[in-house]
Amino acid sequence: MGAWGPGLLSDDTACDVRDEYREMLEDGLDDDEATQRMLDSYADALDDPDEATSVWLAMAVTQSKLGRLDPRVRERALAAIESGTDLARWSDNPRLAAKRRDVLDKARAQLIGPQPQRKKVRRPRRHVTDLQPGDVLSYRAANGHLVLLRVARIDDDRHSVAPVLVALDFTGIRMPPQPELDTLADKPETPDRLGGVRPPWASTSWRVVASFKRIDHDTAGFHRVARTTARPGDPDFRTSTYTSWQSLPRELERNITDAPATSEP
């Protein structure tokens, strides 16, 4: 378990419990089945005194907020609070222990107090891109430089159907002809120096997670201008950089601030 603070959801296990329980409800499971599946899934964690507290509290508080508090979960969560086991983990830091005690007191009050009415849980809006693998997007930067991005693949997950973009190794102010476009390599990433300023093009690929505030590629300054051939490894291409259409132009502008557009005949 990775804890980064005294908050109720300030550890990996608690966040996972909250998210997985909600997803089960979003998928249409009834309350009893969702609860039982969670208990089965976290059986090993419930045998660990430290992790058990996180599981019971996260599940109980999440259920309570949704008006679905299971009596069994409530009693186990309250017992975990009363046992003092959780506070023992913070005994070497009095300041954090005091904050954790406040968190537990608040959780206890929520669990023993009047419960809200049962809330409907719906799946979040799932954005589906209309881009396709092989599409090439152009972005005209403030200095006149043309940035070209290709769609390596489409990533389909629970929350979105999103494009994975890769920058092409291109410098110019005009769109290259198709034969040249098909031979352009992917732009290499610049090694990131530890402790230093992040260099331009430290990332050259992105998963565009969604259209934020209804901003899609065509309203963020990107134009679908061509198609290009697939590259080896595209179906399994992975990137560690996630962004939105709203944020990507700012990153591209930062990358090319010191790269003036070339003059072309």
TrEMBL record:
Bias-annotated ranges (Polar residues): 238-247
Sequence segments annotated as region (Disordered): 179-198, 229-265
Name by which UniProt lists this protein: DUF4259 domain-containing protein
Species, as recorded: Micromonospora cremea
